[in-house]
């Protein structure tokens, strides 16, 4: 799934009262099983997204965008140069339809949550956007989309829900049009090594950068907040904060040519608002990758 509005922090960084544990060997061996469990959790989390429907309609009808400024800089003006923009792990569609407002003639959102895509379809109908919504695990994105993405976009909390990064990178490469661009804006994995202390300054956490997959119930209150379902009764979800090296290597191994890799101090999910102003900009909270097919 995606995005500040469509994303969550890794399970290890959750509040202590939430249920968090390392994934078992059997769970880690079953990628599809982990994805299915996480899909159920995101169906529940759609409750939070449904609350901003009217706000999203107003934003998009006015020609606005839910994307960050750095994303606008990476994507640019799409008018006259993007017939189709595909958004992987699109969640409720607010970011997807922002691409339409940036000039894409048609947008396609891919997500595994039926409830999220129902919301996205309502949003497209309310705004008159030319959108197509595809219900699928991102690893199973339909082949009729192969080679059609003038812009392939993903990010803001999407990669942590994937348990096979090589398979994901292969999908990225097969969806891109020959002259298409891939744009990723994502939370930086090093972010979880730091937190804000009582004095508003950065302090080290006990987060394990190489810890692998974690399972949890409940959501970080800064993002999803509390649902009507008690945390302990919510569906189990699996998150993995892939390292920057793992993300870049997967894309290179799949055959993508990388044009730019950058790190940013942008607080992509608003989880560090309590940091002092002078502390902002000191550590990487997000990163971006822009790429295309060779040749």
Explain briefly what this protein structure is:
This protein has helices at residues 25-28, 31-50, 53-61, 69-75, 94-101, 114-127, 165-175, 244-254; strands at residues 19-22, 84-88, 106-111, 131-135, 149-155, 176-187, 194-196, 202-204, 214-217, 237-239, 257-264, 286-292. It is an alpha/beta fold. The chain has a single domain (11-179, 209-246), classed as Rossmann fold.
What would you say this structure looks like, in words?
This protein is α/β, with parallel strands linked by helices and 295 residues long. It has a single domain, classed as Rossmann fold (3-Layer(aba) Sandwich). Helices cover 28% and strands 23% of the residues. The chain has helices spanning 25-28, 31-50, 53-61, 69-75, 94-101, 114-127, 165-175, 244-254; strands at 19-22, 84-88, 106-111, 131-135, 149-155, 176-187, 194-196, 202-204, 214-217, 237-239, 257-264, 286-292. A 7-stranded mixed sheet has the order 4-3-2-5-6-12-11, with helices on both faces. Strands 1-9-10 form a 3-stranded antiparallel sheet. The longest helix is centred in the first third of the chain and has 20 residues, at 31-50.
């Amino acid at each position: 799934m995606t995005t500040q509005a469509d994303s969550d922090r890794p399970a290890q960084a959750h509040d202590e009262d939430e249920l968090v544990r390392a994934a078992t060997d059997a769970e880690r061996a079953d990628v599809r099983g982990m994805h299915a469990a996480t899909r159920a959790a995101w169906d529940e989390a759609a409750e939070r997204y449904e609350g901003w429907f009217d706000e999203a309609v107003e934003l998009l009808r006015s020609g606005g965008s839910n994307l960050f400024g750095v994303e606008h800089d990476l994507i640019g003006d799409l008018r006259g140069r993007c017939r189709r923009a595909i958004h992987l792990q699109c969640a409720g569609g607010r970011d997807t339809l922002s691409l339409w407002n940036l000039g894409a003639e048609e947008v396609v959102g891919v997500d595994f949550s039926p409830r999220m895509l129902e919301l996205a379809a309502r949003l497209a109908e309310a705004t008159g956007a030319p959108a197509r919504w595809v219900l699928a695990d991102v690893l199973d994105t339909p082949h009729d989309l192969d080679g059609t993405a003038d812009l392939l976009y993903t990010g803001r909390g999407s990669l942590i829900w994937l348990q096979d990064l090589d398979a994901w990178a292969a999908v990225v490469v097969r969806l891109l049009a020959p002259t298409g661009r891939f744009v990723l804006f994502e939370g930086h994995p090093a972010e979880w090594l730091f937190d804000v202390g009582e004095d508003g300054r950065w302090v080290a956490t006990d987060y394990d950068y190489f810890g692998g997959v974690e399972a949890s119930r409940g959501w970080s209150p800064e993002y999803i907040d509390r649902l009507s379902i008690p945390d302990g009764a919510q569906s189990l979800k699996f998150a993995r904060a892939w390292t920057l090296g793992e993300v870049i290597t997967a894309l290179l191994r799949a055959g993508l040519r990388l044009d730019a890799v950058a790190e940013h101090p942008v607080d992509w999910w608003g989880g560090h608002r309590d940091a002092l102003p002078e502390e902002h900009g000191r550590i990487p909270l997000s990163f971006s990758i822009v790429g295309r097919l060779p040749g």
